[in-house]
Amino acid sequence: MLKTIEKPQEVQVPEITEKYPKRWVTVEVTKRDKYGFPASGRVLYQATDIDLMLDKTKYIKGDLYIFYTGSIDDEPQ
Amino acid sequence: MTVILVKKKFVGDATFDKLKLWVIPVTIKGEEIKRDFNLLLDTGAQRTVILPKVKENLDLIEVSEKSVQGTGVTGNSQYSTVKVNLEIGSINLVDINILVGSLPGLFSRYQIVGILGADVLQLLSLKIDYLEKLLEIERPFVYS
Question: Which residues of A are less than 8 Å from B34 in CB distance?
């Protein structure tokens, strides 16, 4: 299931992983750290399935960061 | 010689804490679209591979119709090739040919969309500090 986040707030990446555990998230990056890695952003979508997420974000413009928030060996939900 | 150095700390990283694996954000740039995806750093993999869905998401075009045969733990797979620019933090890698196909072996069951293999890593200097949970990546440049 894919869920659109209404009125997303700017949060730091570690907060995103806490707020959306074991989820795929799409984040609009608003800030990068001094080395160029995503540091903060707005969560646009969260999903349990990567395929749904990639389909949904195909035509979305912007600086997007798509990642899984849990441990990569988590069982699919 | 000039060196670009990036550092990434893995404190509080669920994958590192559980598996001691390094998963890092990599910007993949096609013709028009660029996105950050987490790729598994795998010094044991010869080639960098992304899933076909990522190729579709970034609207990447295959550089040749010739497919590459790869042998993984689970059997043979066919791979196509795309040319992309990669950014690892502020390190830019231009015109890199990477493979598109299913991920090998156990990785196919992981919640990842790609692996960063030796074809890319050989361009970099890596310092892996498990005790400090710190990954340092250098990109040396020699100006002629």
Answer: 63
Residue A38 contacts B, CB cutoff 8 Å: yes
| H/E stretch holding B120 | helix B118-121
Tens of pLDDT, residues B89-141 = 999 999 999 999 999 888 889 999 999 999 999 999 999 999 999 999 999 87
Measured between beta carbons, which residues in chain B are less than 8 angstroms from residue A46? none
CA–CA distance, B25 with B39 (Å, rounded to integer): 6
| The overall pTM is greater than 0.90 | yes
- Report how far apart, in Å, the C-alpha atoms of B14 and of each of B64, B69, B137, B142 are: 38, 33, 21, 37
Kindly provide the ipTM of the predicted complex, given to two decimals: 0.94
Q: How far apart are CA A32 and CA A29, in angstroms?
A: 7
CB contacts of A37 in chain B (<8 Å) are 6, 8, 24-25, 89
CA distance, residue A40 to nearest chain B CA (Å): 13
Q: Which residues contact A63 (CB under 8 A, 6 or more apart)?
A: A28, A29, B34, B36
DSSP class per residue in B23-92: EEEEEEE-SS-EEEEEEEE-TT-SS-EE-HHHHHHTT--EEEEEEEEEEETTEEEEEEEEEEEEEETTEE
Q: Which residues pair with A10 in a beta bridge?
A: A42
